[in-house]
Design a protein that fits this description.
single chain, 321 residues, mainly alpha, 13 helices, 2 strands, globular
Length: 321
């Protein structure tokens, strides 16, 4: 789907002609060369990247919600996304995108600042050394506001890379080629593999940390692994697409309502649901006001903020009950 009209049959014809060995068995191309370029170099890379971004954010959100036992927790509401974007904006501001570790520089710096942000949020939410769930979201909102101000300050310091920094604030898949999917894919595969390995432990976390420990779970180590891996996957996604909010909040919660709380099933289904959600949100961003494109982060915020308010209302009713 897009401003250029390419039929369903042409799309599949172009894709099938890219498979080696099939050219002799297929009809000769009857589409213009421009259609092939649009599909293979603009639309398909964007769809694939949207799939990876959505899967990454949803899996990370499921990890946060599982280890913190809070349906309101996700990379965006805990400030991790904003923390990762601060690191990315900083090295863009000073032209260091490739000076630390080549094309991996932005994801690595984003991961470091995302981890620092998560640590600060957890410290703010702790009371007498214990993590208080009722203050966790508040701490995340405070940190998110502060880091958003920090990014805005960096934007005000330059006119040369202001558009590049604003990209992190709004989130977008515009002009992202195949190389960006190649950067993100290893993070997603490793993160999903590790979190699936922690699926049984996350199931036991629903009983409480003390009960999980009695059943053989190394509680602190599991929390560190899940939070660290979820932050790593989030930072990688943010470093490629900017801040896209509420994906990790909405998708795992809806999947949990449909399939139950078993994380061995919830994690892979969240990856699939997140992929579908972001691809369709990006399609809305491109098509609603075409040819003007709405930033993807704006669309997910419009969809996610009312859902977050609903979850907060339900959570408040549960506490009162």
């Amino acid at each position: 789907m897009g401003t250029a009209a390419i039929s369903f049959g042409q799309v599949w014809g172009i894709l099938l002609h890219q498979i080696p060995g099939l050219n002799h068995w297929l009809p000769q191309p009857d589409w213009p060369a421009s259609s092939e370029q649009i599909l293979l170099k603009v639309r398909l890379p964007r769809v694939v990247l949207g799939i990876l971004i959505g899967a990454s954010l949803a899996v990370a959100g499921a990890g946060f919600q599982g280890v913190l036992r809070n349906p309101l927790a996700d990379p965006y509401t805990l400030g991790v996304s904003s923390g990762a974007s601060v690191g990315a904006a900083f090295i863009i501001l000073y032209g260091l995108q490739y000076s630390i570790a080549g094309e991996w520089s932005v994801p690595l710096v984003a991961f470091a600042t995302g981890m620092i942000t998560l640590w600060l949020v957890v410290k703010l939410a702790q009371v007498q050394g214990k993590l208080r769930m009722e203050t966790l979201i508040l701490a995340g909102v405070v940190m998110q506001a502060f880091l958003g101000a920090a990014v805005s300050f960096m934007v005000s310091m330059t006119n040369q890379v202001v558009n590049d920094i604003l990209f992190w604030l709004m989130g977008s898949l515009t002009m992202r080629g195949w190389s960006y999917s190649g950067i993100l894919l290893p993070y997603l595969l490793v993160g999903l593999f590790v979190l699936l390995g922690c699926g049984r432990s996350l199931n036991l976390f629903t009983l409480g940390e003390r009960q999980a420990a009695y059943l053989g779970v190394h509680v602190e180590r599991t929390k560190l692994i899940v939070l660290g891996v979820s932050t790593l996957v989030t930072a990688a996604a943010v470093s490629v697409s900017g801040v896209i909010g509420f994906v990790g909040l909405i998708v795992p919660h809806l999947i949990r309502l449909m399939t139950g709380p078993d994380y061995r099933l919830l994690l892979p289904l969240s990856a699939i649901g997140g992929a579908l959600y972001v691809v369709w949100a990006d399609t809305l961003a491109r098509m609603v006001l075409s040819p003007v494109e709405i930033p993807l982060g704006v669309v997910t915020a419009f969809l996610g903020a009312p859902f977050f308010a609903y979850l907060l209302y339900q959570h408040k009713k549960t506490i009162k009950g």
